[in-house]
């Protein structure tokens, strides 16, 4: 982002955070952030495969996203993956809410795997290591199925993108990350 955009975000944070009165508002905000990023990820995945959400000419460019570029969508997908995965390990949540966080995590990992950019994988690994070190071990152990699913899914996508025989299965060689 530009200097003006970064400054605006910092000012927005301090203006908003001083007015938060309870944790419910924070939960709603974080859930909305994860939902919005996951929606953007779904639209980016559709655009990756040439399926467009509208008929307007600007919606038919090769890498249409709500953020303007696939690289920005990738970075947001990494952020949403880490946030939704860490929220999934919250002990107080019902299983259906954990399942929604799991689906959000997997959808965002799909975009990271499809674009297959080294910094996307690097940020995901760094974020996952930080998440695991910040969570209590018993918290992670209580939802082993979710952790197993995430690790298996990311491993499969990584393998598909890096094994020579399957490398062209999901990749689009001419797909532009930036236009």
Short description:
With 179 residues, the protein is an all-alpha fold. It has seven helices and no strands.
Count the beta strands.
0
Order of helices and strands: HHHHHHH
Helix count, DSSP H or I runs of 4 or more residues: 7
What gyration radius follows from the Cα positions, in whole Å? 18 Å
Cα end-to-end separation: 16 Å
Largest sheet: none
Q: How much of the sequence is in beta strands? A: under 5%
- Poorly predicted ranges (pLDDT <50, ≥5 residues)? none
The secondary structure category is mainly alpha
Overall shape: it is globular
The helix fraction, in percent, is 55-70%
Taking all residues together, what is the mean pLDDT? 83
Report what the structure shows.
The chain is an all-alpha fold. 68% of the residues lie in helices and 0% in strands. It is built from seven helices and no strands. It has helices at residues 3-17, 23-48, 70-88, 95-115, 118-134, 137-141, 144-162. The two termini are 16 Å apart. The relative contact order is 0.12.
Keywords:
single chain; mainly alpha; 7 helices
SSE diagram, text form:
Blueprint: H1 3-17, H2 23-48, H3 70-88, H4 95-115, H5 118-134, H6 137-141, H7 144-162
Helix pairs in contact: 2-3, 2-4, 3-4, 3-5, 4-7
